[in-house]
Amino acid sequence: MNCQKASELASRQYDQPLSLSKKISLKFHLLICKHCRNFNKNIEQLSHSMQSFLRGDDNKDQKTDTSDSDDSDSQLK
Amino acid sequence: MQSNALLHAESSVTQHFNDVGFMSQLREQMIRFTQTQLRDAEIAEDIVQEALLGAVKNLKAFAGRAAFRSWVFAILKNKMLDHIRKQGRAPATHSIDAEEFNEKGHWQQEAKPMPWQCPEAGLKQEQFMVILELCLNKLPGSQAQVFMMREFLGLSSDEICTEVEITESNLHVLLYRARMGLQKCMANNWLHDDRQATLQKSIKKNLTHTSQKNR
A54 forms bridges with which residues in the sheet? Predict the structure, then answer.
C-alpha cells in the first residue's frame, strides 16, 4: 500500500466501516509511515473538535498532541 | 430546586441576548458558518434569523446544560438540516487529482502532513473554529458542503448521497479532498506563530468592522 491509498482509506474509515483486510493494511502502513500518521491524526482531530464544539465542551477533552509517540492502536477500532 | 436552576439559566440567556456586541458577533459568525454550507447569503441570513428566533422561543430548553454559543449553534444546525432536506442540491463532483503525491503514490515534499500543535498550547477551541471556518471557505463549494453535512450536521454517508444525489464513491472523493485541504490549511495556520498572528489580526479587524457596521 502506498501513501495515496493509505490516506484515502484513513479518510474513508470515518465515513464507513473498512473491511478487515483494508483495516490491517492501513494499520500496518500507519505503523511505518510518519506522514500518513500525521494525516490521520489531523483529520481525526478535525472531526473531534467539531463534535466537542457542538457538545459545548470547553477544551477539556481536546486531544493532546502526542507528536511522535503514536498509539496507532486506538485509531483503527 | 429545578425551577431555581431554570430561572438561573433564563437570566443567563437574557444576559447574553441583552449584550448587543456579543449577539452581533455571534450572528455574524453564524451567518458565515451557514454560508459555507449553503452558499447563499440571503438564505443564510434567513436561517440564522430563524435559529435565533427559535432560541428565544425555547429559552426553557436551554436549562444551562450547554454553553450559550453551542446551544444556539445546535438550533442552527437543525434549521440548516431542514433547509437541506427541502432543497437537496447536487454539488459538482470531482475526480481524485493527486497533486499531493508523486507517481509512486508517495507524499510530495511540500505536501507532507505536519503534526498540529496541541490546542491548549496554541489555539483555544473557539479560535480553532474560527480558523476552520476560514479554511472551509477556501475549499471548493461541493467539498465544504459535504464535509459540513458529514462532520457538523452528522449525516451518514447514505443520507448525504441521497440528499445531494451523488454516488458513494463520489462522496468519498469529495470528503477525502475536503479533509486533505483542511488539514493542510489548518497545519499552515497553526504551525507558524507569525502567520497565526497575522490571521488573528485580520479576524479582529473583521469583527470590529462588522460590529461597527451593525451600530
Answer: none
ipTM of the complex: 0.75
For CA atoms B189, B194, B197, B198, the dihedral sign is: negative
Structural domain range at position A48: 1-54
Q: What count of CB pairs under 8 Å joins A to B?
A: 116
pLDDT in tens, B45-87: 888 888 888 887 777 666 555 577 777 888 888 888 777 776 6
Q: How far apart are CA A69 and CA B122, in angstroms?
A: 20
Q: Is A60 among the domain residues?
A: no
B176, B205 contact by CB (below 8 A):
no
User: Based on the domain organization, do B81 and B102 belong to the same domain?
Assistant: no
Q: Residues of chain A whose C-beta is under 8 A from some C-beta in B?
A: 2-5, 7-8, 11-12, 14-16, 35-36, 38-39, 41-43, 45-47, 49-59, 62-65, 67-68
The answer on B205 and B184 residing in a single domain is: yes
Which residue, chain included where needed, has cell 493527486? B98
Cβ neighbours of A55 in B, within 8 Å:
66, 70
| Domain assignment of residue A1, yes or no | yes
Residues pairing with B107 in the sheet: B101
DSSP-derived secondary structure for B171-194: HHHHHHHHHHHHHHHHHHHHH-HH
